[in-house]
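Please predict the structure of the following assembly.
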Amino acid sequence: MRYRIHHSTSLLYDSVVRLARLNLRLKPAPWPGQRVENFALKLDPPPAEIEAGDGPWIVHRHRVILREALSELSIESRFEIEVNEPAPAPEDAPDIASIRAAALALPDLSAMGPASYLFASPMAPPSAAIAEWAAPFFGPDQSVLAAGHALMGAIHAQFSYDGTATSVTTTAKDAFEQKRGVCQDFAHVMIVAARAHGIPAAYVSGYLRTLPPPGQPRLVGADAMHAWAALWCGQDIGWVGFDPTNDVLAGTDHIFVAMGRDYADIAPIDGVFMGGAGQRLSVSVDVEPVED
Amino acid sequence: MATRAPRKAQPVDRLKDYPVDVDAGDLFRHAPPEVAAKWRMMAGGLNTLAQDSGLSAQELLARQIADMGMSFRMTGDAEERSWPLTPMPLIVGAQEWAKVEAGLVQRARLLEAVVGDIYGPQDLVREGHIPAAVVAGSRYFARAMSGVLPRRGHYIHVYAVDLARGPHGQWRVLGDRLRLANGVGYALENRLALSRGTGSLLSDIHARRLAGFFGQLRQGLSADCPRESPRIALLTPGRFNQSYPEQAHLARYLGFPLVEGRDLSVIDGKLYVRTIGGPKRVDALWRWIDTNSLDPLNFDARSTIGVPDLADCWAGGQVAMANWPGVEVVEAPAFAAFLPRLFQTLLGEDPLLPNVATWWCGGETEADLVRGRLDELMIAPAFGQRVEGLATVQPAHGAQLTPEAREALLAAMARRPMDYCAQEIINLSTTPALIEDRFEPRPFTLRAFVARGADGEWVVMPGGFARLSSSGKIASTLMGEGDLSADVCVVDEADEERFSRVTLTGAPSIRRDGGVLAAQAADNLFWFGRYGERAEMTVRVVRSILGGGIEVDAGASGHPEVRARLIELLANWGALGPDHGALSPAEACRAALVEHDLPGGVAALLNTQRNVGQSLRDRFAPDFWRIASRSLPALDSHRPGVLLRVARELIERFAALSGLGAEDMVRGPAWRFLDLGRRIERALSLCRIARQLEGAGEESDRLNTLLDIFDSQITYRSRYLSAPLRDPVYDLLLLDPDNPRSLVHQVQAIERHIAALPSLREDALPEAPLREVRAVLAPLVSLTVDQFDEPRMVEIEMRLNALSDSISARYFLQFDAAVAGRTPLQG
């Protein structure tokens, strides 16, 4: 599949702020089966400095500095991307016990390696409640893919999608107690559950192609950024994306942007500014399929 | 000094009765004869001191501790506690220490090499010497530091290590600390208190001095800085941090500015501290903040104590860091399972100082072994964080788990084995501790410190910080409930060591300025002065209401209406509640003095002043701080006599503080800001009180009260034979520059202070605060007293308030309006 993505964010500060310094993690990092073209980033007002580079995770980061005083900022990113159909998941994946052992044994400290996604992270601290809830899915003989499917299905079935119940700073534990939240919360719950049983789990941010209801036109800009979880399924299979919000594996409808331990590692936008103001944020995302 | 005669006194050898417990292995009992002799000399000396002074050795030391203002907090403490130091140090002979020293230096070299590999080529992980999960599992592993090299290749500058001494005198490493060298300041303080409290005793036993170590540490840091004569700052998380008193003490001792993240900013990849004279370069930071919190743009975005873009400064070689961010990864307990083998791999040497045997359960063989020997081992979280199945982060004895706890632990370990490690059980040897008037054996652990010297070489502090356990438990925190701390003295046979050390330091270049005054410190000094002065003015008003002046027939502040006006003033100042009308004058006075919930009351003001002062601890002389932090005298009576006595006591305290400030503080910007705050508050109070009394009661009562509050009665009488009249009194209180309590005197002082502060203007024109103070001064020096009517007083008051704002705007930090612990002055 080929898509044209347009992501626009506008930030309104309650009063004038100075020296805003931001990290933008909007450009898709290199990922198997994806090719990014014509990425363009536009800020208004334009930044004094902009610097692009790789972050410490599977993430691309633009660092921008705006020196002038401002009360409003708009950030627009556009790109085209080719997403290939992922290889079909093999019939028999390794079982939980062998994944657990392999994750500990593999001498790989890189951001693609399993070791980095085995432990608590700032927004996904361990939770005994989640661990216990997820225990039935992680029998040692269970295949890791089956476990992932069962866990994903359970989240999809037991949690309600509710855009008002949580915020970007909600931890997995809080979302779990409420059994409601958004894609970010569901991904965090899935990550905490998998890690509790020794399975490496990562947080993925990206975009999702949404299909209009039958007979209706696609609404432009109605989408938002999406997030899902990835489980490490052994060296042969590697990372597999599980989208608990939609109860599907990440496929050609999912456009990968970044992968880290949790939201905080790869937040699309964060930063600091001087001034005591609060800020409001509005986002519009358009994922447009392109005919070849 | 080298030829002092030995003490004549025949000490009672209280160590003679010291219990012998061969199994435990005691530092004194097992000491070679020449070292045991030092123990006896020390014990005898302490005894003699106690006899000579009539105080116990503990009391002697407690006085030193109180004088030095030594304190600490335990987790959960709201208030600082005074420091529990036992007078008897641990005495370690030079020979025994030499082995420890060599082992520590070797271990420092190893850790340096391990860290260099983890953030460099990562061969150790790739080749299977360290599992990737052991590195990734540490919450202090900073992935963003990969490939970021220190300019001179030095990752570690300060290394603290906990040591245990076994029953047979074998030393072992319990834990490595690279994040924070907690205890290094307390080791210093313990030594200071002990050497001050025990006369020449420490020299008599030839205890090695600590000063050389700190000199080396400082030089080692300087040597890594990009500029000559670098500015090295100590970066603190702030005064609410548990070890803040230690950090403040270290900063003061080493002469490093004590800064918080918000004092610093990064401009073009260089680090600056905001000072009253504009931004000044900082070349090195001794950080007391975790890597994750150092820079919200490059690490944890939620950190509010870091400095945005600080990572750019160190990555660009513009600021040296002690320690290099990320090095604390190796302090995870799990690392201890892999370090012993790395001595051979990386250094080609056998370890001189073993660490406590450790098994990381992330390995299948190890996990099996641990499960099989659970009863013989201590089980601990592998990465120092709470884990399922263990109640705390402290190691738990496998044998002491209940069957249920054991089952839960094994189940949790089966799911996440990598979160656990096991350690052998270690028996600690004991040391004689002076408890009451007897020596008792107490198990101990020792925190030792290693630093880099000027040429990058490793230097071990000849001593350290000993924790004498009350429970026999292994120390993993600095101090536990009921524990004692002790100094550690490394003793030489003769006295030679000492003199060779001093010369290492080299001659510093001469300088006279007061060093860096961070904008925030200036702010705090200013408000310290204002709060103190407001408290003093409130007490003076109270004293006046109670009739404490020298006037013969003033039972209380003369006319009832004058008194009522003063009480109204106290209410306006927030020193009395809205329902003060129901109180008698004495009750009102008591409330204004001691009620903590009255925001403008003396108790609350002094409390706020003390809180602001906490962050200035590195700038105040210990005597000054001791008086400033003294608690209010107890007061449960409404009797005017008692109240008056307390008011007088407080006024004396204020006088003592002003005196110390005037006599002891260098006339630098710090002193100026302290005095500025005081002068502005005094000038404002004068205007305010004069206005408040306008038209109240008989003129003579009113003017007497004014003279009384501003301590000018005697001067008035020596000048005028008449009863107080308006113009002479106002001239004396407002316009006479020779009266140190007059308005013009305050404003002149303010003008001198501001004129002496650094200017940011290159055109040499006066800055706003200076222009504004001159505008206040002009009428005071040019008009006559009959021209001072109420509107003019109101105008001066307004201008003074504007001046205070203008000083804030020019010299202090501009954002962060709500500084924690700060309450606005009312009225």
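The interface with chain B takes residues 21, 23, 55-57, 63, 101, 103-109, 111, 113, 115-116, 118-120, 122, 126, 128, 131, 138, 195-198, 264, 267, 270-272, 274-276 of chain A (CB under 8 Å). The mean pLDDT of chain A is 92.
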